[in-house]
Amino acid sequence: MTYLTSRKLDKLRQTVFFITGMKHSGKTSAAMYAAHRMGCRFADSDDLVLGSIGDMYTSVREFYRAEGKELFMEREFQVVSKFLDDYREEDLCISLGGGACDNQALMDICRASGVIIVLREPAEALYNRIIEGGIPPFLDAEDPRGSFSKLYDQRNGLYNAFGDVIIDKAEISVEQMLQEVHLKILDIRERYYGRQQFR
Question: N or C terminus of the chain: which is more exposed, having fewer CB within 10 Å?
């Protein structure tokens, strides 16, 4: 784990923790676990997007494939912004989609609203998980492995730039990762906010 920020976290308007990383890195599980342990509100940005499009599409992947990256990112920004506004008085744990780091507007509001925790997973393990369900629309069907490798390097650079904390999952189990996220959030709350009521 490495702190990457020197930002004045105590100047943020509320305690919001965004968990992000590549697809299948465990973002949703980590955010749900931390929210449950701390008794705060949880949300997943993909679920927020899906809930905003009614019955037009049955999955976020279908919406992304049909409408394209730009429209998806616009909707992603809108729903996260609305969620933050709707629950501005509450502590929140929010899981972001794997491509959130490509969405500059979304990253700007996340950095303005809370702390960004990045889960870093080894490339090969991620690739194997991702293609189990078929080649997703963000990879080149003609060269999925090559396009994944390029995307992995590109997004890790963005995560390094946007992340306040990075948790490397290479040498730890899923259970250890969940504990690390939870303990890091507790540490940040006490260190920067002076609040210790979470367990």
Answer: C
- 120 vs 82, higher pLDDT: 82
Largest CA distance in the chain: 52
State both tokens at 70: 């730009």
* CA dist., res. 191 & res. 149, Å (int): 37
Residue 11 has pLDDT above 80, yes or no: no
Question: Of 15, 183, 189, 195, nearest to 90 (Cα)?
Answer: 15
Q: Say how far apart CA 161 and CA 142 lie, in whole Å.
A: 30
Residue 98 contacts residue 73 (beta carbons within 8 Å): no
Residue type, 160: N
Q: What is the pLDDT of residue 130?
A: 83
User: How far is residue 117's CA from residue 92's CA, in Å, rounded to a whole number?
Assistant: 13
Whether the Cβ atoms of residue 171 and residue 20 lie closer than 8 Å to each other: no
User: What's the CA dihedral at 146, 20, 156, 7 to 10 degrees?
Assistant: 170
